[in-house]
Amino acid sequence: MKHYLCLLSFCLLAFTATAQSNLRGVVKDNSGEVLVGANVILTGTGRGSTTDLDGNFNIRNIPSGNFTLRVSYLGFEPFTKEVSIPASENLEITLQSSSLLTEEFIVYATRATDRTPTTFTQVDKSDIAKLNLGQDIPVLLNFTPSVVSFSDAGAGVGYTGLRIRGSDQTRINVTVNGIPLNDAESHGVFWVNMPDFASSVDNIQIQRGVGTSTNGAATFGASLNIQTDTRQEEAYGEVDNSFGSFNTRRHMVKVGSGLINDKWAFDARLSQITSDGYIDRASSDLRSYFLSGGYYGENHVVKLNVFSGAEVTYQAWEGVPEALLETNRTFNPYTYDNQVDNYRQTHNQLIYTGQFGPNWKANAALHYTYGRGFYEQFRRNDRLSNYALPPVVIGDQSIARMDIIRRRWLDNDFYGAVFSLNYISDDKKLDAVIGGGANRYDGDHFGELIWMQYAADVNIRDRYYDNKATKDDYNIYAKATYEALDGLYLFGDLQYRRIDYSFDGINNDLRDISGEVNFNFFNPKFGFTYQKDPNKTWYASYAVANREPVRRDFTDSPIVDRAPQSENLQNIEAGYRGQGSGFTYAANLYYMNYRDQLVLTGQLNDVGAYVRDNVDNSYRAGIELEGAYQLSSKFTIGGNIAFSRNKIEEFLEYLDDYAAETFTQEVIVHNDTDIAFSPNIVGAAILDYRPIKNLEISLLNKYVGSQYLDNTQNENRKLDAFWTTDLRLNYAMRPRFVKNLEFTLLINNIFNQLYEPNGYTFSYFLPAEGATGRELVTENFYYPQAGTNFLAGVKILF
User: Fold this and answer.
1) Which of 95, 121, 150 is the last residue of a domain?
2) Who contacts 172 (Cβ-Cβ below 8 Å, separation ≥6)?
3) Same domain, yes or no, for 253 and 217?
4) Per the structure, how many domains does the chain have?
5) CA–CA separation, 656 and 83 (whole Å)
6) Looking at residue 608, what is its pLDDT?
7) Which residues form the signal peptide (predicted)?
8) Residues 682/643, Cβ–Cβ less than 8 Å
9) Could you tell me if residue 358 is inside a domain?
10) Judgement on whether residues 48 and 128 belong to the same structural domain of the protein
11) Is residue 751 situated within a structural domain?
């Protein structure tokens, strides 16, 4: 009887196995283009899939019977179909554009389209996800045109930054959903305050050059226009964990409700990233969350985003002295155990988008950002006079110097509103936008002494400096694209921007910096696009940008006696974009002419601090080439390269002279020198290989030419050229119990190149040893990046 029962069980199992079938198909839009990442669900079975890079799906192990197939994709109407299993043929499903108002209009006013005569690159969520194992956005954008990224800690976690066409982060405008992100005073973006933000990003548009009018800081080299996650049609859950070299860990959980009653959607993310860093003690402890909820009507969308980041990062700001690069590349001069930067920043965005009839759309947003934190420093044998304190008298001894620990605080609020109104004519020939914003920044800067080697007449929360800044930034713009002839589009963009900036109080060098400055800027832009064939686009434009000095330009230079001047940029762009069967390509020329560009010259202010000064004439000119080609069904190659010339017509270098009887500065005139941190060649090349389904192997190469640490074009003050190669392996599978299971291995710098993409320098004269006269001393400091290292991740999508 046991044998018969076993035989019967095996027969039943075999019958069950043979009764399981697969359902295959492809999903396209109404123009025939495949849709990647569409959700395909067989209701009632618990089985589903998402479309791959070719738009295909495959649902496995389905029992026989009749079921309802549901297909959904953002921006398209959900599709349902009754299917019988086993199915006799592959399905071809076409989705129709949704009648619901999409979220893309949230960023439409500040973005370029294929008919806008400017140079831009679009980075989609799938591109970001391939590299995202916890690194900051600058590292994830490293392989886009003309970008050079770097990390203070050397491993892509913690303080990171990027330059585009040689322009640093303070000259790159960044918006999130059209709302300004740049710090109102420094103009910088501190990505460390937004850990794992890339996990909540849907897409990024990078505009190089002046680009189109936007909100916030002036676009003086490039702009990053970021759109956060858009709604998902289906409920989902995601768990993402990664680990790697230098004890790097990342844990992320993300959930979403999908569209509830076709009206409501909610999303949430929670992340933690920790790393010891490549540089000694350059550790990071980063935490963040992202919350979003919205109402999605047929003609109106109301959405609330709240995202926050908290970071505690051990300082690796000082860099590695040149003399130690070969013997101790991970050197960090700081040894005090709490030499940290400790900061939290929370962003609140309330966004409305509406459609009014067939011709009009409107977008408006209110925002509020609160940030508070400090950096702590141990100061050995510091002067008490630096803190407005008299010497400490102990018995008959007067102590004017001692060890102290100080904290420098920033407590700030940034709030305001942005808006845009879009009109499209019935014949689609005119597309016009009027928009703008009003924003206010309130910043409180103060310093405290929290410990002293000897007791002094000071309390722990006494402020040795305290100053407040208020900055109002208003702008309004109008831009339009008009099809004057068949395929010829004329573009115009006019922006007026006003800045009111005031200071009140004592700076950290104990000077009274009270004062007020005002700026009024007019920024016109004109151009044309010729697009007779949708696969071939020619464009050219002329744009003007004006930029106010940053906070330190005012605080280091007395506002009343010697206020720094605003900067002016005139930008010409001309290019061509094309695509064909299996390939895309683009080429553009640019010329960026600066007037009164602010640069470090070595000049001192009245208390010995180095200040930036305006240089009359400087420029950047270059050509950028990019393309991609599908060699076969398994191989794809793509890349970009930029050749540029970046010059200052005349540069005055101020050198401290300690060899003279009384301290003085010597002025050296330099002509036609390279602008600092502006390599003449920047390139990237990516080779993708798919040996089997769902496995992708990528070789990522980056080349950056040599660049100078200052504007003197001195060969002794230079960053050497470097070429790095990374290897990425990505394997995705769709087991029965989850929607998607994905494994990623990223091996950075596989050839263990020693390189430094960032640094700084200063020089001075000292008395010559053993002889009369003097000698020039140059001190270079570098930020080395890690040799061969890895990150590995597992992503589970429910």
Assistant:
1) 95
2) 162, 164, 182, 189, 219, 220, 221, 222, 223, 224
3) no
4) 3
5) 82
6) 61
7) 1-19
8) no
9) yes
10) no
11) yes
DSSP code, position 337: T
Q: What range defines the domain where residue 124 resides?
A: 103-228
Query: What value does the mean pLDDT of the chain take?
Result: 91
Contact 626, 585 (CB under 8 A): yes
Do 288 and 370 belong to one domain?
yes
> Residue 101 in 3-state DSSP?
coil
Both 683 and 664 in one domain: the answer is yes
Structure tokens at 18: 């043979």
Same domain for 442 and 531: yes
Could you list the beta-strand ranges (E) of 463-609: 463-485, 488-506, 515-530, 536-547, 567-580, 583-604
Same domain, 195 and 329: no
Both 63 and 127 in a single domain?
A: no
More confident residue, 46 or 79: 79
Give the rounded distance of the alpha carbon of 227 from its chain centre. Answer: 12
CA neighbours within 13 Å on the CB side: how many for 772? 1
Taking the C-alpha atoms of residue 734 and residue 226, their distance in angstroms, rounded to an integer, is 30
Last-in-domain residue among 95, 128, 153: 95
Cα 758 from Cα 707, distance rounded (Å): 9
| CATH number of the domain enclosing 599 | 2.40.170.20
Q: Looking at residue 739, what is its pLDDT?
A: 86
Give the per-residue pLDDT at 100: 54
385 in helix, strand or coil?
A: helix
For residue 3, being part of any structural domain is answered with no
- CA-nearest of 712, 699, 780, 703 to 746 is 699
253 or 88, greater pLDDT: 253
Same domain, 513 and 617: yes
Is pTM beyond 0.90? Reply is no
Residues 531 and 578: beta-carbon distance below 8 Å: no
The CATH number that applies at residue 81 is: 2.60.40.1120
Gap between the Cα atoms of 150 and 85, Å rounded? 54
Which of 378, 377, 389, 388 shows the shortest CA–CA distance to 510? Answer: 388
Percentage of the chain modeled with pLDDT above 70:
94
Q: Where residue 123 sits, what CATH number does that domain have? A: 2.170.130.10
Per-residue pLDDT band at 388 (split at 50, 70, 90): very high
Within-domain flag for 8 = no
What pLDDT does residue 234 have? 87
Please tell me whether the peptide bond between 390 and the residue prior to it is cis, using omega within 30 degrees of 0.
no
CA-CA distance, 503 to 519, in Å (whole number)?
15
Each residue of 724-758: pLDDT tens digit? 999 999 999 888 788 889 999 999 999 999 999 99
